[in-house]
Amino acid sequence: MTRVKYPVIYEKSANGWGAHVPDLPGCVALGFTLDETKRLIQGAIKLHLRSTREDGDPIPGPSHVVDVLEVA
Predict the structure, then answer these.
(1) Whole-number Å distance between alpha carbons of 38 and 55
(2) CA–CA separation, 5 vs 71, rounded Å?
(3) Smallest Cα–Cα separation from 60: which of 1, 4, 15?
(4) Of 9, 4, 37, nearest to 22 (Cα)?
(5) In whole angstroms, what separates CA 47 from the centre of its chain?
(6) Which residues contact 43 (CB under 8 A, 6 or more apart)?
(7) Domain boundaries, the chain
(8) Of 6, 41, 42, 44, which residue has the fewest beta carbons closer than 10 angstroms?
């Protein structure tokens, strides 16, 4: 099985953390902590890809590039 790296966006909220995967529409997770949210989004990605395969749809490749810039 080929491994693919998908960018994940993590967002802090008043109640915890949210995550979404821009290349996999609808693939989201919510958690109380960042660590919990990371675990949940990994499971959500696996479930999303398995469901996509079972439906016979093509698996989308990553199309986003992520960078972190430091600004003074």
Answers:
(1) 26
(2) 26
(3) 4
(4) 9
(5) 11
(6) 29
(7) 9-54
(8) 42
Three-state DSSP at 51 gives helix
For residue 9, count other CB atoms closer than 10 A to its CB: 13
- Interval 34-54: pLDDT, tens: 999 999 999 999 999 999 999
pLDDT at residue 1 in the model: 63
Percent of the chain scored above 90 by pLDDT?
82
Give the other-Cβ count within 10 Å of 14's Cβ. 4
In tens, the pLDDT along 5-29 reads 999 999 999 999 999 999 999 999 9
CA separation for the pair 19, 62 (Å, rounded): 16
DSSP 60: P
Task: Quote the CA–CA distance of 62 and 15 in Å, as a whole number.
Answer: 29
